[in-house]
Amino acid sequence: MFPMITGFMNYGQQRVRAARYIGQSFMITLSHVNRLPITIQYPYEKVIATERFRGRIHFEFDKCIACEVCVRVCPIDLPVIDWKLETDIRKKRLLNYSIDFGICIFCGNCVEYCPTNCLSMTEEYELSTYDRHELNYNQIALGRLPMSVLDDYTIRTILNSPQKKNK
């Protein structure tokens, strides 16, 4: 008779424990009801990139001295630099500069170590194309400044981090 009573007691304890777990999970669900949604409607709303965001690289052709530091510090030797030595002035003249963003890992080493600051990171992150050969940017495409998200009146901008309320 005792095993039957202990069996009923164990069954009752298990039911109470299950009800407690269900109640706790229901309370967690109810606590999330008052929160604002995090998702954004992408084509119509865009997130403002943070200050140190590493997007597409911007290149200023006139500042470059063809020292090839960017190629040496790049972990994958990505920037392609063509230059010619001008013997009369004993300096290098830059002919072509290109970066393939299909291969680039956006580490930012080239920007950090450039002695003339001709490279900089932009906030542009929309680089998707249907053909990967379109991701090979020459000095003309790299020199194009991207349109700022803040300047586009057709898009509602959303801050990346939530604003802190001052009390």
UniProtKB/TrEMBL annotation:
Molecular function terms, GO-annotated: 4 iron, 4 sulfur cluster binding; iron ion binding; NADH dehydrogenase (ubiquinone) activity; oxidoreductase activity, acting on NAD(P)H, quinone or similar compound as acceptor; quinone binding
Localization: Plastid, Chloroplast thylakoid membrane
Signal peptide start and end residues: none
Annotated cofactor note: Binds 2 [4Fe-4S] clusters per subunit.
Pfam family, one: Fer4_9
Cofactor(s) the protein needs: [4Fe-4S] cluster
Main localization of the protein described in the UniProt heading: plastid
Keywords from the named record: 4Fe-4S, Chloroplast, Iron, Iron-sulfur, Membrane, Metal-binding, NAD, NADP, Plastid, Plastoquinone, Quinone, Repeat, Thylakoid, Translocase
Protein topology in the membrane: Peripheral membrane protein
Binding site for [4Fe-4S] cluster 2: C74, C104, C107, C110
Cellular component, GO annotation: chloroplast thylakoid membrane
Record-stated family: Belongs to the complex I 23 kDa subunit family.
Function: NDH shuttles electrons from NAD(P)H:plastoquinone, via FMN and iron-sulfur (Fe-S) centers, to quinones in the photosynthetic chain and possibly in a chloroplast respiratory chain. The immediate electron acceptor for the enzyme in this species is believed to be plastoquinone. Couples the redox reaction to proton translocation, and thus conserves the redox energy in a proton gradient.
Record-given protein name: NAD(P)H-quinone oxidoreductase subunit I, chloroplastic
